[in-house]
Amino acid sequence: MKLGKIAVGIIKILCIVCFLALTISLLLMILSRNVPFINFDVMWTDEIGRYLLVYLVFLGSGLAMIDGRHIRVDFILDKLSPKPRKLLEIFNDVVTIAFCAVMVGGGYVLVKSTVTQVVATLRKYFNMPMAFWNSAIMVGGAIMLIAVCIRLFRRFQNGDGPADEKKDRVIS
DSSP letter at 163? Predict the structure, then answer.
């Protein structure tokens, strides 16, 4: 569990860094448009802000999945008895695993095909290949995939009892 808590801590730090960088880049964009004495080119702020937001969304989705707080509609689950509820939750986890696997695979294909591409507006300042920015899909999908696999494994370990919110958390 200690390794899991370290991984969650790293993901949280990455989210904080992405959020701070996003805030700074957008603040620079606003200042460059509205303050007349700023004479430098900040065309890159819009582009980098967009990519940082994408990374933030995918890392945040992974954290939500780890914490068992990802968006879900559970009004049908609440009306079921424990055994059908568990079966439906297992089915949901299997479908989610398949979806995350497709995300990781598709993200890998996208990353592989954009290794040599560089964003035109960012080329002057950041010589990062587009694959770095596109890897958000693969990274977020992998985090969610691991979290759901662990949750599904724990569902089978726990027996026939209903899963509640505390049991849905991957890292306790």
Answer: P
The amino acid at residue 1 is M
Q: Are 73 and 107 in contact (CB under 8 A)?
A: no
Contact indicator for 168, 86 with CB cutoff of 8 Å: no
Q: Where are the domains of the chain?
A: 1-158
CA pair distance 94, 56, nearest whole angstrom = 25
For the question of whether the overall pTM of this predicted structure is more than 0.70, the answer is: yes
Question: Nearest Cα to 143, choosing from 171, 113, 111?
Answer: 171
Mean pLDDT of the chain: 86
Count the Cβ atoms, other than its own, within 10 Å of residue 149.
Answer: 16
Do residues 18 and 52 lie in contact, with contact meaning Cβ atoms separated by under 8 Å? yes
pLDDT tens-digit map of 48-60: 888 999 999 999 9
Which letter does DSSP use for residue 77 in this model?
G
**Max Cα-Cα span within the chain:** 68
* Residue 1: per-residue pLDDT: 66
